[in-house]
Amino acid sequence: MTEQVDVVVIGLGVGGEEVAGKLAEAGLSVVGVEAGLVGGECPYWGCVPTKMMIRASGIIGETRRAAAIAGEASIRPDWSLVSQRIRAEATDSWNDKVAVDRFEGKGGRFVRGRARITGRGQVAIEDQVFSARGGIVVATGTVPAVPPISGLAGTPYWTNREAVATEQPPQSLVVLGGGAIGLELAQVFARFGTEVTVVEAARHLLPAEEPEAGETVRTVLADEGVAIHVGATATGVSHDAAGFAVTLDDGTTLIAERLLVATGRRPELHGLGLEEYGVDVDAPVLDVDERLRAAEGLWAIGDVTGHGAFTHVAMYQAGIAVRDILGQDGPAASYHAVPRVTFTDPEVGSVGLTEAQARDAGLTVRVGSSQTSSSARGWIHKSGNEGLVKLIEDTGRGVLVGATAVGPHGGEVLGALAVAVHARVPVRELRQMIYAYPTFHRGIEDALRDLQGPDV
Ligand SMILES: Cc1cc2nc3c(=O)[nH]c(=O)nc-3n(C[C@H](O)[C@H](O)[C@H](O)COP(=O)(O)OP(=O)(O)OC[C@H]3O[C@@H](n4cnc5c(N)ncnc54)[C@H](O)[C@@H]3O)c2cc1C
Ligand SMILES: NC(=O)c1ccc[n+]([C@@H]2O[C@H](COP(=O)([O-])OP(=O)(O)OC[C@H]3O[C@@H](n4cnc5c(N)ncnc54)[C@H](O)[C@@H]3O)[C@@H](O)[C@H]2O)c1
Predict the structure, then answer these.
(1) Which of 62, 108, 250, 387 is the 20 to 30 Å CA partner of 444?
(2) Domain at 339-450: CATH architecture
(3) Domain topology for 2-39+96-142+267-326
């Protein structure tokens, strides 16, 4: 028996849950299908629990900075507080009943299982089949991209999921990948007493960011005792009762109790039945237009679309897809000012293009930067004041096309920069603004002064 409905949403992570809930509230008959937990990666294994871990490790970091400023302080890190908080407050011990009830309370119909498109407008979950006259929304997210390193497959390596669920920090940990996941978790575990080694294949940590950002984080992590290998490739992994041995291309062998693989994430397009819509399932991402349409009657949102694997991008796209499905007007998707924050200490906030990306795009750029430690607030802050602001101006238009804020509250300083890049505020306007004294965001004014050359 095939049931007729308006829309089927495949995957109820942050993006799919938002679309399905909003469409149900608008009065459509909506089926939401989820193979795992409603809410997806962010609340159960991603943003929320990792930021709880970071909140705790941040207190440890600040306590260790106290001596030079406020007096001797000591702290005995207790992981059980973090582990219990993740279970009690973030994940309900990985139970999504509240989220399922919330969706059903909006009038949605929930189906647990793995969905597959079996024809245009048709979705099957085992022997349940739905015909969606209004269309299908794919919001299936990503899975960890595990590199094909000899010996790795079949070992009990961690991804973010095991790292979040662990009830005690390991004695020692090798982190493969110096991106957002790798560095956030490396600093957390190091501050809780784990001996951590990071292995990053690129020349800098956080290679998607400005090199200065990665270098600043590298210095701070190294000072905190994290061993860092950049430009290093793992050539082999083995595991026995004693733990992991990871061999690098320079012959070094790293020994650790645990191995965290944090080498990126990728959409899984196979097995969804997307061929029914002529989609190339070997492509790296599910391509969508500015209305989030992947084909006639098929929408896709969130990480699967490859426009930035962030909760705020999934939510932003959800809003546009909902409007389009409901036939409402509104602005099309634009990605010229996607903000992103890596919540290390110091935080790395950035928006838009890096200097290299702007030059590669053929823009004529001016670059200005300032060091947090040279600002009044950074000097007052003292320990833990490593950071910078870097601005990328397109001189042709006299606007910022990219910016980075590294430092204490770098992700909050980013707010002002995101407005400037998003709204294309002229640089000459930014220079006439008044910046409150003594804030970290006054570093923006210093960096504007550093932009060399005449104003347009
Ligand atoms: C450790 C970590 C930390 C992060 N921290 C941040 C952060 O601080 N800030 C931020 O903005 N982002 C962060 N992210 C990224 C954020 O979690 C993702 O961008 C977000 O979850 C994407 O939402 P989504 O709905 O696209 O996909 P997901 O949340 O991945 O949800 C997709 C859902 O689809 C389901 N699914 C897949 N295939 C099927 C199928 N065939 N049938 C039914 N269901 C299916 C999956 O089970 C899953 O629940 C972090 C990610 C990780 C891993
Ligand atoms: N604060 C946040 O917003 C936040 C936090 C965590 C994750 N995320 C999202 O999740 C996504 C995935 O995170 P991630 O850290 O896994 O990916 P990432 O792409 O940010 O970083 C992966 C890193 O691994 C390196 N790498 C790849 N293969 C390697 C190998 N074989 N050996 C050594 N290094 C290797 C890459 O050069 C890169 O630096 C991020 O891109 C981000 O969008 C966001």
Answers:
(1) 62
(2) 2-Layer Sandwich (3.30)
(3) FAD/NAD(P)-binding domain (3.50.50)
